[in-house]
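== Sequence entry ==
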Amino acid sequence: MLEIIDLHVKLEEEDKEIIKGLSLTVPKGEVHAIMGPNGSGKSTLAYSIAGHPKYHVTGGTVTLDGQDVLQMPVDERARAGLFLAMQYPVEVPGVSVANFLRTAKTAIDGEAPKLRHWVKDVNGAMERLNLDASFSQRSVNENFSGGEKKRHEIAQLELLDPKVAILDETDSGLDIDALKIVADGVNRFRAQEGKGVVLITHYTRILRYITPDRVHVFVDGKMADEGGPELAEQLEAEGYDKYLPAKV
């Protein structure tokens, strides 16, 4: 279970609070969608949980299965079972996808995977994400299309097998075919026992393929509303205006 209590976050270089007392619980086996207008703090939440140094937690707690996440360096957070799929995956020139994946798996598990089984696992993940086998020899995200970057993120999710996946606008820039492939990957992950997903998105289109257990609305760094999957449809129809300050 991922539990966030009264979280406060500000940018390290600015005296401006972005997340203002947020509480959120994601039980095992559930998908929680986080929606909200631009600048509401959705991505800040994701990067703060993952340990990005740009964001400074000034109050509150984040625990994963009772462990204090905020006291862990980034690598320990990954070993504890946290996974972040970034909105804008970075390029790593000179490092092949195959080497990157095996190095990450070794770091998380504490030992290198047996090569014969690992190659089979990687090829299987690539096939399920509609990525050619030669893809594993390319440099990480270098000259990848938007869809390839996002599908590669979901391949990482399958192979690294975390407890909780935080997906920051994984649907952005995807055509309908890539969206379905990514959604299928997330659904395979959620179907495993004890997994949790935090799905950050602007739009409801990915929620047509990944049905959330709960939908949360973020506005100005705070929780403005929450409900079941029907709340996403309401947001699609009505937008966020009712949560925003009235214009003078």
Q: What stands out?
A: The chain is about 35% helix and 30% strand. The CA atoms of residues 230 and 247 lie 27 Å apart. The mean pLDDT is 92.
